[in-house]
TrEMBL record:
One of its GO terms (molecular function) is tRNA-specific adenosine-34 deaminase activity. Keywords: Hydrolase. It comes from candidate division CSSED10-310 bacterium. Pfam families: dCMP_cyt_deam_1 (PF00383). This is Nucleoside deaminase. It is an enzyme of class 3 (hydrolase). The lineage of its organism: Bacteria, Bacteria division CSSED10-310.
Length: 296
């Protein structure tokens, strides 16, 4: 009890100081360090299932009790549970009269996702912000596995539509909780608007679909590594993960006009962390731009 109260006091101090991003970074660092010690050969392991990742995070790492997190539904693709465990962040929010929907998302969500991505990049963490403490007795949470190849194929279809419509041949899809909330291709040429890249169009759709300009938890799939403008938009939308097929550097070598600044460079200099996953269906994505180079 004393240790828990100390953590609550420390969390109150951190929130009073406005160190939310620092809190998220520190939590991420601690979880990554624990994984490095607990599973030093992690790269050699098979990809974890939702159940395995759930047990690793909450029971082995966080040392919670199974009775505190009853599972209410489960399949090969996802696991859903209710969290009743004591939470120092929740207690601090109650003391400070802060909205847990904002604080928990900012502090916990990307740190939890970073942990899952280490054991299987296709695993995604989601918390219901309609069913969250203190308004409910529990927080409804889940881990769902996305099929990265499936969503990249949809992005490739968008890129093909782009070319068929007289544009440059890029496609993007935004996914949240295994649901498409944005899907588009670039329309810069046909709309005579140089800002209308595929990622911009897809993110704008996603914001309208979700009715929220904070896309934390969402994954942006793009046939090509987003340009600096699109990577910056992903940052401002607080997207959790960018997944792309072929890099800016490679498409530049194929003759595409690109600003050769990587997504990672933009993110390294941004106020929030966005995960980047590369080379998903890279051969299929490369073919799009190789064909364009030959055609031109």
């Amino acid at each position: 009890m004393t240790h828990f109260n100390e953590r609550v006091s420390q969390t109150i101090d951190q929130l009073n100081q406005g160190n939310i991003q620092a809190m998220a970074s520190e939590l991420t660092r601690k979880r990554m360090s624990w994984l490095d010690e607990a599973l030093p050969g992690l790269g050699e392991f098979e990809k974890f299932t939702p159940r395995q990742a759930f047990e690793l995070l909450f029971f082995e790492h966080m040392r919670l009790k199974k009775a505190e997190l009853p599972v209410i539904s489960e399949s090969e693709k996802e696991i859903v549970w209710l969290s009743y465990n004591r939470c120092s962040l929740l207690e601090a929010c109650l003391v400070l009269e802060m909205d847990t929907r904002n604080v928990c998302r900012a502090v916990n969500e990307k740190a939890t996702q970073a942990f899952l991505s280490r054991v299987n990049p296709e695993l995604r963490f989601h918390r219901s912000y309609e069913e969250i403490r203190p308004d409910y007795e529990f927080c409804r949470e889940k881990i769902v596995r996305l099929d990265f190849n499936h969503y990249m194929r949809l992005a490739i279809q968008e890129a093909q539509r782009s070319r068929d419509n007289g544009n440059k041949g890029y496609g993007a899809v935004v996914v949240y909780d295994d649901h498409i909330i944005g899907q588009a291709f670039d329309t810069a040429i046909t709309a005579r608007d140089p800002s209308l890249h595929a990622e911009v169009n897809a993110i704008r759709q996603a914001v309208k679909t979700k009715k929220d300009d904070d896309l934390c938890g969402a994954v942006l799939f793009s046939t090509c590594e987003p340009c600096p403008m699109c990577s910056s938009l992903a940052v401002w939308a607080n997207i959790t993960t960018i997944v792309y097929g072929v890099s800016i550097a490679e498409t530049a070598r194929l003759g595409k006009s690109r600003i050769e600044v990587s997504a990672e460079h933009i993110i390294e200099n941004s106020p929030v962390f966005v995960e980047v996953v590369s080379n998903i269906l890279s051969n299929e994505c490369r073919k799009l731009y190789l064909e364009q180079s030959i055609a031109s």
